[in-house]
Amino acid sequence: MEVPVKHAKSILSFTQEDINRFWSKVAIGDSNECWEFRAGKDYDGYGIFYAQRTSWRSNRIVVALTLRRDLGKDKQACHKCDNPSCCNPNHIYEGSDLDNKRDATERQHYSQAQYKRAAEHPETYLRGEDVHLAKLTEAEVLAIRKFWSEGYTIRSIQRLIPRVCWETVSSVVKNKTWKHLL
Ligand SMILES: [Zn+2]
């Protein structure tokens, strides 16, 4: 006789108290900001939350709570923002491994084009360092975009320049700041 396979626990088994406890660990911000998970994280930077005698990754919890169901088989909770500890439901979606890779490739192609333009038009490099309180040097901005174009994550780039925060690096690669260096 076959032994029935035990189903993996469902995030839907969370009590309201578990859910409240989860959100209490999230730095909830504006709808377009990253909401950092403030408690324990795993080796890859994902938030780890313990409930129902199981540990869960924060991004999977967010997707399951948003969709009101568990993630589909072979599906992942993918971050649009490339910030593993982010818990903003607007930044996380249920996708396949393929979606994840396609997103990463698109990001890479886009940034390569931007960096090429920066390299070809050095005369547009002026300004940024003159801005009062600029946190990055122009060389750093170019380095950040170069690392990004080569596929490094924002987190790993930020570790190289620890005096600036994740958001600063994110704004540079998303071309929200230092636009004149594009
Ligand atoms: Zn985010």
Description:
- It is elongated, with a radius of gyration of 19 Å.
- Helix 5 (154-160) crosses helix 6.
- Mean pLDDT is 78; it is low at 122-134.
- A hairpin with a 2-residue loop joins strand 1 and strand 2.
- The protein has helices at residues 16-24, 58-67, 97-120, 138-149, 154-160, 166-173; strands at residues 48-51, 54-57, 76-79, 92-95.
- The chain has a two-stranded antiparallel ribbon.
- The protein is mostly helical and 182 residues long.
- It starts with 15 loop residues before the first helix and ends in a 9-residue tail after the last helix.
- It has two domains: 11-95, no CATH class; 98-181, no CATH class.
- The chain has six helices and four strands; from the N terminus they run αββαββαααα.
- Zinc ion binds next to loops.
Write out key terms for the chains shown.
182 residues; mainly alpha; 2 domains; two-stranded antiparallel sheet; 6 helices; 4 strands; 9% strand; binds zinc ion
Bound molecules: zinc ion
Number of helices: 6
Query: What average pLDDT do the residues reach?
Result: 78
Q: Classify the helix fraction into a percent range.
A: 25-40%
Dominant shape = elongated
Biggest beta sheet attributes: 2 strands, antiparallel
Q: Per DSSP, what share of the residues sits in E-state strands of 2 or more residues? A: 5-15%
Low-confidence stretches: 122-134
Report the structural category: mainly alpha
The strand count comes to 4
Structurally, how many domains make up the residues?
A: 2
Q: Which sequence of SSEs, written as H and E, runs from N to C?
A: HEEHEEHHHH
Alpha-carbon Rg, integer: 19 Å
Strand order of the largest sheet: 1-2
Distance between the termini: 65 Å
